[in-house]
Amino acid sequence: MPSHPGRMSLREPDPAPRPARSAATTGTPRKWRSLPWPRRQAPAEPGPGPAAASAEVLEPAATRTGGTHSADVLGSPATTALLTKNDPLDLVQPAFLAAVPASWRPKRAWLSFVPSPRSTPFTFGYLVLLLGTSLLIRFGSPKLTGKLLAVSSTDAHNMARHPLTALLTSAFWIADGGWLPYAVIFAIAVAPFERRFGGFRTALVFFSGHVLATIATELPVMALIHTDVLPRSAGRWLDIGVSYGFLTTAGVLVALLRGRARIAGIAALELFVIGVYVTDDPATLASVVTVLGHACAAHFGLLVWGPRLRSVPRVAR
């Protein structure tokens, strides 16, 4: 049956098209409805608006496998760039690294106190020279080493005949050949001095203390022998060693301390001098001369060199 032609003009317009199925009809929880979910097909290019940028940030990021990023599920270049810039896996450290103190990882601080040819060339070279002479005493011919020590001794006999040779060579020998204790003493008393003032000043202070303490103790002995107060044999005892030199540098280091640290350093320095005298052989004249030389060297560095070097700036490294 044909329709009435006027009926089409009186028919109400069709309602608006029905919207797509909402999340409520699919059973999706209400709190997740505003989140965009990934789709298997390739998404459209992101729009220029801020909503598109926020959606890309919320998309799932690529996982990290074998140290490299796999392909993004949605193929979004913004997601890959964001993960490359702030990779959460790069911020996680292994448990065994977290347990190790950070100060131990890059370097070991105690190695900086060991004398080296770069940081302390004078101390290192001097220890090498003392090691050579100590090995010569230990393994060399007794006749040869005895003759060398007799020529190098700063006794009254040598000081009256060849003082320069005795003063220069006596500081390169260790009487008992025990090199290792002197290496520790040099690392404590000479190497810190050289790190602060350089090798030239270290050599100057070291040898000035050695020469001054030797002259201050041997001149009275020479005078007593000349006046027959002491026998002639007193002018030929063996007098070698490096103790005058490092006690001078130790005295300077103590003078650079301040407050209670300086008082403790002076007490330790005096106790060291007394301890060497007591453990040596305090009843002999040689021990008396030696303790006077030690006291002269330590106080020469403490009272003379210390005030002069207190205002000297640290050398540049």
Give the secondary structure arrangement, pairings included.
Blueprint: H1 7-10, H2 23-26, H3 50-58, E1 64-65, E2 68-69, H4 77-85, H5 95-99, H6 121-139, H7 142-152, H8 156-161, H9 163-169, H10 179-189, H11 191-226, H12 243-255, H13 260-280, H14 285-309
Antiparallel strand pairs: 1-2
Q: What attributes characterize this protein structure?
A:
single chain, 317 residues, mainly alpha, two-stranded antiparallel sheet
Q: Quote the beta fraction.
A: under 5%
Compute the number of strand runs: 2
Contiguous uncertain segments of 5+ residues: 1-10, 30-35, 50-75, 79-98
Topology as a string of helices (H) and strands (E): HHHEEHHHHHHHHHHH
Helix count? 14
> How many angstroms does the end-to-end distance come to?
111 Å
Order of strands in the sheet with most strands: 1-2
Name the shape in a single word: globular
Give the overall pLDDT as a whole number. 77
Q: What Rg, in angstroms, do the CA atoms define?
A: 43 Å
- Percent helix among the residues? 55-70%
The main pleated sheet reads as: 2 strands, antiparallel
Structural class: mainly alpha
